[in-house]
Amino acid sequence: MSASMKGVVLVGHGGIPKDCPPDLVTKLKRLEAQRRAAKQLPSPEERELDQKIRRWPRTKETDPYQSGLEAVGAVLRPYLNGVLFAMAYNEFCAPTLEEAVESLAKQGATSITVLTTMFTPGGSHSEVEIPEILEHLRPKYPDVELRYAWPFDLQLIAKTLTEQLRRWS
Fold first, then answer.
1. Pick from 17, 1, 28: nearest CA to 110
2. Contact, 129 vs 32, CB < 8 A?
3. Which residues lie below 8 Å from residue 125, measured CB to CB, with a gap of 6+?
4. Euclidean distance between CA atoms 42 and 34, whole angstroms
């Protein structure tokens, strides 16, 4: 195993497949809210529902968000110069960040950088959940450096948005 084997995980929000029964999502969100209010760990029922929704069969038509993130990943990958690459989702879609890190670690990554598509400061996924997950994973992978490429430089975000605006002006 190379001492400098690097990996990147691109994390997106995740979307609910259009054909997933709404009652499953409603029940999952209710269980999550109850758990968070009680400051408890997920119940077996919550974990089962989460996995059922995350593993729901998807197509480009039923989950355009997943297809869109995969397209971003396909464009990003060549710029990474052979670095190991995985994608993950915060919710509703698989794989999880935990699963993506596990996959890269099994492939020999000794340094993994997590990159989110959520650029805006203030979001709970990017500012709270991803850092918490990485803290939870560090003891499990003591020989893997886990880094989080956050926060984004707002000047660079503004320049990107300005360029996009110019394309449409």
1. 1
2. no
3. 13, 90, 91, 116, 118
4. 10
Q: 3-state SS string over the chain? A: CCCCCEEEEEEECCCCCCCCCHHHHHHHHHHHHHHHHHCCCCCHHHHHHHHHHHCCCCCCCCCHHHHHHHHHHHHHHHHHCCCEEEEEECCCCCCCHHHHHHHHHHCCCCEEEEEECCCCCCCHHHHHHHHHHHHHHCCCCCCCEEEECCCCCHHHHHHHHHHHHHHCC
Within 10 Å of residue 84's Cβ, how many Cβ atoms? Answer: 18
Task: Give the tens place of pLDDT for each residue, 94-113.
Answer: 999 999 999 999 999 999 99
Distance of CA 73 to the CA centre of its chain: 12
In this predicted structure, the answer to whether residue 47 has a pLDDT above a threshold of 60 is yes
Please name the residue that has the structure tokens 């803290």: 135
For domain 6-16+63-167, give the fold.
Rossmann fold (3.40.50)
Residue carrying the six token digits 């990017």: 126
Q: Where are the domains of the chain?
A: 6-16+63-167, 21-55
Q: What's the predicted TM-score (pTM) here?
A: 0.92
- Residue 30 pLDDT level (bands cut at 50, 70, 90): very high
Cα 99 to chain center, whole Å? Answer: 10
